[in-house]
Amino acid sequence: MEKNTDNSKPRQHMNGKLTVVVMLFAVVLIASIVLLFFVSKGIEAKQGADKQIKLSGQGGFACEYSEAQKLFPFADGVLKVTNDRAAYLTLSGNEVYSQVISYSNPRCMTHGDYACVFDSDGYAFVALKKDGAMFAAPVANKIKSVYISDDGFFAVITDGGDAYGEVILYNTTGAILSTWSSYNSGFPLCVAFSDDSSLMAVSTVNTSGASAVPYIRVFSISREKDAIDVSDLAIYTVSDSVVFANVTFLGKTLYAYTSDGVYKVKDGELVKLKLNFPSINYVRKVGENMFVVYSDSVDQLNKLAVVNNSDNIIYNSDIGSDVNGITSVGNLCALSVDKRIFLIKNNGTITDDIAVDEDVLRIGFIENDKLCAVSTSGVHTVN
């Protein structure tokens, strides 16, 4: 009699083991793919960086994020600005001097060897240098903004009472050199000085009509012995209903910028240049060239274009999503973008591309062309 054998149970057991092995393999494969994705994204984020540095390992001092928000690179250290004090600190965090203030909304502007701390929408400001406060001054109307020249002129834009606004020009001792009240030109928006501080441009916009009308007033600042004279030199406008939110001088040539266009004074007229910048975010003069940070539309990747004094684009490239800060000295510019710091010559040559491990709040050039970076964890120097 033939013996009946049944192998169905062992086969089912083997099939079960095989299923488990396949499932485990699939899990491992998926995990590997996910890990590889994040690693590749991390490599992509740092691709092209000359070096990577840990900011906490650089020179400087550590502080809480709330305190870091009050620090501004200046001279050989930083200014710490609070509602009741403006203090100059070394890069080790030691206080050199302080100025007592009482501001509801303090803001800080720095330019070269000079700084200004003012009460935004308040009535007072203080002018500072590396070795101490130069002067403090009250104003009659609310302060909107302050601009500083290479020679230490302080242009303070205020409300104007019965005028649209005023621009008050101070010298380094706190003496008022001129006061211009805008009755017909509209609201003062911004100020720019030429490198030798002999020219001052004021951008305004008049909104009293059916459409906005932009104006730019240019003033001459002349020196004769101990006297300084400020006088009207020129006024410019265009037929376009635009707002010149930024103005600058390249040499003695005036440039003006809207949200999507660049204008230049040519043959006594303000004309629009044929430069395609759909959404301008930052403009910085570097040497005799312009650095324009722009994007193709709002919330798109930022690009950097370098425009020479012949109005030609000599460099144009993507730089990143979020611009944290931009600063310049001589022919060198520093850009903090995402978690990268770029050092760029005014011809567009990138001399350093540094990946950092923290979010940078502000950057500024300090002694011997070192870079001071204020991050979420403190103050750091980058050589």
Description:
The protein has 383 residues and is mostly beta strands. 11% of the residues lie in helices and 54% in strands. The protein has helices at residues 8-46, 65-68, and strands at residues 51-53, 60-62, 71-74, 77-81, 85-89, 95-100, 106-111, 114-119, 124-129, 132-138, 143-148, 154-160, 163-170, 176-182, 187-193, 199-206, 213-224, 227-237, 246-250, 253-257, 262-266, 269-272, 279-286, 289-295, 302-307, 313-320, 323-329, 332-337, 340-345, 350-356, 360-365, 371-375, 378-382. The strands form eight sheets. The chain has a five-stranded mixed sheet, with no helix packed on it. Strands 2-33-32-31 form a four-stranded antiparallel sheet. Strand 25 and strand 26 form a beta hairpin. Residues 1-10 and 34-46 have low confidence and may be disordered.
Summary tags:
five-stranded mixed sheet, 383 residues, 2 helices, mainly beta
Concise summary:
The chain is 11% helix and 54% strand. The protein has helices at residues 8-46, 65-68, and strands at residues 51-53, 60-62, 71-74, 77-81, 85-89, 95-100, 106-111, 114-119, 124-129, 132-138, 143-148, 154-160, 163-170, 176-182, 187-193, 199-206, 213-224, 227-237, 246-250, 253-257, 262-266, 269-272, 279-286, 289-295, 302-307, 313-320, 323-329, 332-337, 340-345, 350-356, 360-365, 371-375, 378-382.
